[in-house]
Amino acid sequence: MKSLQIAYQEEVVMLTGDDVLTPEYIQRLYQLDQEVRNTKSSKNLTLKDVCFMIPKVEPSLLKLLDYNDTRVDPSSQMNPALYCSFVESMRKECYVKSILDLWGFKKKTIMALTKEDIVNAINVESDELFGKLKSHKDLLGMVEKNETGHIVGAKALYNYWYLTKNFSAIDMEKVGNMAGTSDWATEEAVDWEGLFLEILEKFSQSKEMFYYAGRSFGDISNAALFQDMDLIVFGVTIMILYVQLVISKFNFVEMRIILGFIGLLSIGMSFVVGSGICSLIGVPYGPVHTSLPFLLMGLGVDDMFIIIACWEELTAEEKKLPMERKIALTLKHAGVSITITSVTDVIAFIIGSSTIAVIVISIICAGFSIESCMKLEKKFNPEWFIPEGTHLGNFFSARNTYFPLVGFDAGLYMGAVNYSHELTNIKRAVDKLNEISNTTENVVSWVDPFRDFVMFNFHHDVFIEPLDDDRFSIFLTKFLMSPKYAQYQGNFIFERELECGVPAPKIKLSTIDFFFKKSSETQQQISAMYQVRGIAENINFTSGDRFATVWSKFFATWITDELIGIEVLRNLQLALLCVMLCTIPLIANWQISCLIFCCVLITMVDVCGLMQRWGVNVDLVSCIGLELAIGLCVDYATHVGHTFLTVSEGNRQERVIKTVTSIGSAVLYGGLSTFIGVSMMSFSRAYTFQSFFKIFFLVIVFGLFHGIVLLPVILSFIGPSPYKKHKKPAVEESELKPLDS
């Protein structure tokens, strides 16, 4: 950013229809353009105050130069002082890439246009001066041509306004947002963009106009942080009612309202403390954090049910002990629950009568899920964070429909090397970019035009005989000040400002622009990225800082796609290993620990398999969800496995029945509380919430099934012996006395 200093930012409008090359659409676009240019923002700013400026070439000056009548360039043949006086006399205008430029933005001409006028203009237009800057045909989408290859219609039309982006004047403390997704922009640009969005909202009442501003992604993603507050409130209300129904008894003495609220208060405390600690260590509050209240609602109350069940299981003698001792005994047996419901009785009956069916169902699910896991895609797109129905979401949808083949813009960046001696190396790199036509397209290089310019005007082939530094600087200034080649000024960053008639300053940075071809396959995009990077690495500069690299704003997404699969697999393996290492010393039984590990492993396989069928890819969001899922599903199997070891009476079958009827309902209550907590996310339009809901719904379903159905079935066949009982010391007589005696 420090090297670039000045850049531009796009403000885009897309008109769509059966045929946008009609007077109606062109005139509507003109009205919009005038509104955008002339309306003032809250800080009294107009487009002219914030736009990216380029020279305005008057028709009279074009006629005077008349360079189209000869191949000789006036910048090389005219008297430098005279020519530079012409260049410096040019007024600046806002850089607007628009089809309206074909008619000079003249109202009278545009209002009198016919369909034939528009078609003729778009087919014969050729801007020698601005070339790639003002090419109009690439503004059209879904173009229709006649049998002679001429354009006769189009279904979409782009219009661009460009704002100046001065990186040295940007203060992200003022223009940033809580989501950390705001774009780099000055305060003035952000203020004007607010006006731009207001104008477009007014103009886009129909479904035929789509738009976005530089601040759109940041605004919408930031708003998404708080757009579901109503769901949080509703979820808290439902959770309060659910907790009261589970922990209370239906009489006025044991309603336990205060106890329920205290239990739920821990959720809010966890959220505040967790967010505060993250902020303290440098982890900002972002889009993913918005799902925490829902997750904590589900995860924060399930242990409450286990603790209350253990409290009620205390014997009559234990209930006479001091409060501290009773709490200690409750937490000691927190893996056991005595709550008995009809649901767990049914589960116990299933275990006794249909053990084979449970195993068969588990095997079928696992086999189906393994096959689906093999099809999981590693794919992430930041556009998914934009909710449907927003102006930016609608724009992305329309762009994919009307411009499906437009690729990803990128650039080959070269540093402060000796360009006069490195031109042949740069030429080879450009040729290689053109050769890999299956990967790149629209390569725009200044190297060949510079060689042609010098060759024709000065009869010197720079590829055969390199220029000395002084002559290179002189020729480069003439080249970039030429009417035909001035379009390449944006490909250079100099140590100081380029001046007409003065040898070019030392080059700090230069670029070769190109596009990556669009591909739906993630691996193809990653391969293309490394293929082009290899070209940059093999330029082999021998002078200056030898810097050469390829960059695109889409690289962040592609690198994420590349690494996320490795990270997910590694993190899941480490999490499963931690499950095993933690359960062995805590459960103190290797056989139960292995069975718990198997339940967690099968659950995760089923979750990943059904994820693929449900349309969830492996990305940043699902990666977090899967890692949290392991911690959730291990609870179900651990409670059942531990309780089985504490039941000592009867054979395996009887111990399993006792286990399920004593702890099963508490585990089920915990699973239901988690489901209630995350179910509110299903009503959100946010991608993060939708992904988390799908993952946690699957975790709850398969985790409960494997924990309170499959595991008991397995234990009924190969369950280990119970813990050895140790004789409990008699409760001291003093401890049995009433506390008030």
Automatic annotation (TrEMBL):
Keyword annotations: Glycoprotein, Membrane, Transmembrane, Transmembrane helix
Domain of life according to the entry: Eukaryota
GO cellular component: membrane
Positions of the SSD domain: 228-365
Membrane-traversing stretches: 231-250, 257-285, 346-370, 574-604, 616-638, 659-683, 695-718
Classification via Pfam families: Patched
Membrane topology note: Multi-pass membrane protein
Coarse class of the protein's main subcellular location: membrane
InterPro entries attached to this UniProt entry: Patched_domain-protein, PTHD_SSD, SSD
Subcellular location(s) per record: Membrane
PANTHER family found in the cross-reference section: PATCHED DOMAIN-CONTAINING PROTEIN 3-LIKE PROTEIN (PTHR10796:SF130), PATCHED-RELATED (PTHR10796)
Similarity annotation: Belongs to the patched family.
Protein name listed in UniProt: SSD domain-containing protein
Species this chain originates from: Diabrotica balteata
